[in-house]
User: Fold this.
Amino acid sequence: MKHFLLPVAAMAFGLTVVAQDLPQASPYGEVEQVVGLTKVEIDYSRPNVRGRQIFGDLLPFGKIWRLGANSSTTIELDGPVMIDGQKLAKGKYSMLAIPNEGAWEIIFNKNPELWGTNRKEDEDALHIKAETAPSDFTETLTITFDEVKDDKARVDIRWEKTRASFWISADATEQGMENIKKALAEKDPKAGAYASSARFAMERGVMTKEALGWAQKAVDMDAKYYYMHTLALVQAANGLTKEAIATAEKSMDAAKKADDMAYVKLNEAKLKEWKGK
Assistant:
């Protein structure tokens, strides 16, 4: 009986070892960022330098690389974007790279299930150039979003002593205006919805006269000093400087009573600007 049980126990132990969830040499990572109103997610495996020379040696210049380890790095977009001025449609793509001195070629392929670099070139959706620059030493391959502002972000790929970068942008104006229409079409929108809608439209330079109506509606519903400040801004954007000054003075007086010095200063700055014209 002992001779029978021993192999079974050994086999069970072997199966247990195989089934274990063990750490990988190149751990999985992901980074996500909303650019404008578009969500961008990058999934990749993160190899380490481990004392090796990477670019020009382990990864020869001019040779395609999966931009990570294991399965190819992927990027998923929930709306269309512009990458270095070129349009890329909503969807999920594999990202590959051809490192070169001075700039890398980044390839976006329509097949997100690639393993390694074996791809069909006719499925490439976009090729761009990512400029490189010297970087502080980075042991683990790292992809980040930096300078996220004005509906755009810089994507940085750092490894060893190199940084490759490209820009991704997604104009939120059209989608934002669609969101406003939906919000204001709902039953009994609040004053804040009208004020934020007016501010967005004004800052984007669209539908300024309609924005004026929204800003006035917010103040009519709730005469808070911050809503009055928005109304003053929109009045000025519509060339109604005299009205803007009067509204800003009311907003500043109310802000003083509320002891909100931030809005006092905002109104003071605008009054100085408008009265100087």
Summary: Residues 1-6, 8-13 have pLDDT under 50 and may be disordered.
